[in-house]
Design brief:
2 helices, structural constituent of ribosome, alpha+beta, mitochondrion, 13 strands, 163 residues, Ribosomal_uL6_a/b-dom, four-stranded antiparallel beta sheet, ribosomal protein, rRNA binding
């Protein structure tokens, strides 16, 4: 059986303490829980006992995140749909009687364009969870194609009622 060894890129620091693994780099840091202990020699990292496939994928996502970062781009499609940032909150106007207010997680940064906005983070799990929460307030409509969409998402609209 081969021993799974991870090679860290230049500029990435990795440590473990009391069941928590901390990975930090140029784009930020990622923490996750693990029952394994980290043993490091130079830029080589070994976890004992070995990581499960789930923990191994989280560790590789953390390394990619702190080196390159992750970005999810969302687009608002519909009449009067808007988003703005106030302090550490996103305020959405999505056609409801009151605006939808969401707190931005600490690990996520937001960048606005005209009709799109980008969510950026080193932690993929937090980023996907936040993007799904935003989308849940106004899923894409199958008849008109409006709502909160991913930037590269294509909605195939259904045909309306025939009379």
């Amino acid at each position: 059986m081969t021993i799974p060894v991870f090679r860290l890129p230049i500029g990435v620091e990795c440590s473990s303490n009391k069941g928590k693994v901390h990975v930090s780099g140029a784009r930020g840091f990622v923490d996750f829980n693990s029952v394994s202990n980290l043993h490091r020699k130079g830029n080589m990292v070994i976890f004992l006992p070995y990581l499960s496939s789930y923990e191994s994928s989280i560790f590789t996502q953390a390394i990619f995140g702190v080196v390159l970062g992750y970005t999810i781009e969302l687009k608002l499609k519909g009449i009067g749909y808007r988003v703005r940032q106030k302090d550490k909150k996103l305020i959405f106007s999505l056609g409801y009687s009151r605006p939808v207010v969401l707190n931005i997680p600490k690990a996520v940064s937001v960048k606005f364009d005209k009709r799109t906005f980008s969510l950026m983070s080193a932690n993929l799990g937090i980023l996907q969870n936040f993007a799904t929460t935003i989308r849940s307030f106004r899923f894409p409509d199958l008849y008109k194609g409006g709502g909160v969409l991913y930037a590269n998402e294509i909605i195939v609209c259904k045909e309306g009622k025939k009379s």
